[in-house]
């Protein structure tokens, strides 16, 4: 199964000799300019095309930008055989599709931050199924959370590679969730392509600038903001570069 102090504005101090009305007008103008500046797209061009995507998304949302909260996820799993303590760690999206009701428990997470992300998952939230530790890693499909966090039974199984002798049944250290297959992505979205967008967005302020896939690469469970999820999902409609 799956393995796992703001700088002071130069114009903030008005000349004491200026009338109050002029000062108020200046402050109002500055405030308006700051607001316009905050909503103005970053200067420069981006090969990623995220600005056109953002305009479309804002139009759909009535011009409101999505809140930066984690409501989607990325789950890594190995699609190729690898033995650990005699157990094959392979679990591809095809393996998930072959499960009864195309559902399985997502066990074996032994990193505290990743575990906490598991515990934060809510029923019905969607996640990208990501093939990792293989020749060409990337996103292959979408799953959804069908059971929220509960104790991971493998922590108590001495024969399991993820056995933890320090965990107690009365106070389990590790958790798992149940996930169900939703669909394959319309095309395979490789890590290399997502990384190219990430690098472009770091320069121009795009939605993938802080994507955890590149800031905390080793985590097998990663959160995604709505903006990150939507942008990556839009890539399935594009032809691979």
From TrEMBL:
Keywords: Nucleus, Phosphoprotein
UniProt keyword annotation of Disulfide bond present: no
Any one cellular-component term (Gene Ontology): nucleus
Pfam families per record: EVE (PF01878)
Alphabetical list of InterPro entries matching this protein: 5hmC_binding, EVE_domain, PUA-like_sf, THYN1-like_EVE
Taxonomy, superkingdom: Eukaryota
Region of interest called Disordered, as start-end residue ranges on this chain: 1-62
Compositional bias segments (type: Basic and acidic residues): 10-39
Main location, first listed in the record: nucleus
Task of the protein: Specifically binds 5-hydroxymethylcytosine (5hmC), suggesting that it acts as a specific reader of 5hmC.
Protein name: Thymocyte nuclear protein 1
